[in-house]
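Input chain follows. Return structure tokens only.
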Amino acid sequence: MNSLFSSSSSPFLLSLLILILFGTFVGVSCSPLESAYIVESCKRTLYSDVCIQSLSQYATTIKGNPRNLAITALVFTFNTSRSTLVKLRDMSQNRPGESRSLDVCLKEVSDGVYNLQRSIKRIQEFKIGVEFRKQMSDIETWVSAVITDDNTCMRDFPPAASIETKVLVRKLVVRIAHLASIALTFVNQYALH
């Protein structure tokens, strides 16, 4: 597996994250059309409430553009997955008796972070033409793998783990799966354009 932040993708990820954070923190107001685009797009997902709550704040970045919507959804899912990975590592260190229980989820979430990183990089490098369908197929495969990884984490979670740990891990991992599902919907929609 490649480094999570290879030298070729770091500048892109950093600039995109700064752009998203800048739009969030400076309180840029969006037009009613930009907000309506997010709401209408989110209604096409399985988790419309989560989608609206997560992506509405980026309406000015998305600007009613399907490509920007797909990228923003991928980046949001990537950031949430990375944050979850840190929380799981902390849990593993702070709960030594359950570190083996968390190993499966740590691996699966780490794989998901890597697949999301590859997806973001690939969608940024798009070249419209003959390879477009292959590029989209790669991204769809990688984002689908994130959902599968999260399901594997929960399915293979050892019964010996405490109920508190299971509930917390489930909450974190289900959020990633929902966000990945939303991102996949928007990647699929972009692929049809």
